[in-house]
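REVIEWER CHECKLIST
Item 1: Sequence provided? yes
Item 2: Single chain? yes
Item 3: Sequence as submitted:
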Amino acid sequence: MCGINGIVYKNKKPNKSEIHIMNQAIKHRGPDDEGIMSFENSILGHVRLSILDLSPKGKQPMTCDKRFWITYNGEIYNFKTIREELIKLGHKFFSETDTEVVAELMNYLIEDKASPLEATTEVAKRIEGNYAIAFLVKNSKNLYVTRRGSPLLIGISKSLNCVASDSLALPNNVDAKGTHKLNCEVTVSGNFYSHDWSYTKLAHND
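Item 4: Structure as written out by the authors:
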């Protein structure tokens, strides 16, 4: 069990102390390590419970090529199969984590000309397991989220949108009425300037 957090701001630069507070609120989910990655208008957080790869190579948020970053919680049952498929296509791996496999799968799909939302939807179709994943495309206003089994909440306010593994991590300025718990398999794209969310039709309950 790990925990993921993410914030995209509307009109201000990211504040690492805010995501650190979110991470600390769910430290019980990942006592082994904390990761933070900040961008122009967004920031990702992760608390880690090391299981598959105990080395620092499994630290999150993680990236393959600096174009997008992933923060992930859960277990992918078929990651070894996907890993072998990607190796045959020429992809190289530096860790033994399922996180890196998901990141490389996303990378492969984007290289194959899929949009970030299309790629996220395809990732959700191909992986098997219980998970909550947030992809942040660098220099983008969008965050792409998919989950199955693992908890994930979306928080909305006038100044920011956020995702979190637990309601304990949601910032104080997020109205409870603007919080949506994703109860079933769902892939979400958020436009953080207009605060509109579009749900791809996998399956979801509001």
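Item 5: Key structural point noted by reviewer: Residues 6 and 144 are 11 Å apart (CA to CA).
Item 6: Recommendation: ____
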